[in-house]
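Dear U.,

Please find below the material for section 3 of the report. The protein was modelled together with S-adenosylmethionine; I have listed the sequence and SMILES used, followed by the predicted complex structure.
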Amino acid sequence: MVTVGDKYILPGRGDHDRLRVISEIHDGETRKLLRQAGFIAGCRLVEFGCGLGYVTRWAAAEGATATGLDINEEQIRASQRLAERAGLTTVDFRTANIYEPGLDAESLDIAYCRWLMVHLNRPVEAMRAIYRALKPGGVMVCEEADISAVYAEPHSAAYEEMLDIGLRAGRARGVEYDGGRRIHIWAKRAGFEVVHVAAYHPHYLNGPYKGFWNWTLRTAARRLVEEGAITQDRWNELVAGMTAADESADTVVAHCRMHQLIARKGANQ
Ligand SMILES: C[S@@+](CC[C@H](N)C(=O)[O-])C[C@H]1O[C@@H](n2cnc3c(N)ncnc32)[C@H](O)[C@@H]1O
């Protein structure tokens, strides 16, 4: 059986800057959510799809025994280097596929993932793997995007079309980039009790994060140009349209809406 369901289309060294920006935008909310879920010094936490391991390192610095898992070996090596440089001793990073994480059953207090399930073909199966690794009473904390909430106001036809292209490309690959809104459903199907849901939605009039989706969508759509799904000319027009919206001091660009979930494995499982 093929177990790698990953459809992550922005891998590689060039993605480090994007992961750093994701950390800058989201880590504040992530830390609050983890504390709300019961994160305390001494807990055993694993971050799935950890990318460059920002959250894993924070958890270790706060006293957790923390492991970051990711399918991308290069990112895992970079995460290890960053942890060594920070002098962290209760952290490790391992290359692993979420479907077969290689963790002992019932060994975790907290499982965390961000922006991972929307890249997977089988998010419910991935959550079942997390479920197995959690201790009875342990929690899964999950933050996932709904990118259909990205928009510009005044309206930008370029943003709208590029977003639509991105969502359709995801569906063609069997992944749901608007899946953040469904994480509570996926968690229930995986056997969890859903204990908390919330969402937040940053908006930018200016500043370094306003162009995040222009950057992300145009990078993802490069592959569609290579595949012949859109022409180079159309790509150029859409990028110019999004850039005009970003550069207008009167235009607000909305980031994706981030959905948050705390779900518990029953104590008597
Ligand atoms: C958008 S990045 C998010 C990284 C990190 N969670 C963050 O918020 O900064 C998605 C990550 O999921 C990882 N990933 C994708 N498919 C995976 C799989 N099947 N198993 C483990 N990691 C996976 C990718 O390599 C990538 O690092």
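For the text of the report, you could mention the following: The pocket of S-adenosylmethionine is lined by residues 4, 6, 8, 19, 22-23, 49-51, 70-72, 75, 97-98, 114-116, 119-120 (CB under 6 Å).

Regards,
Y.
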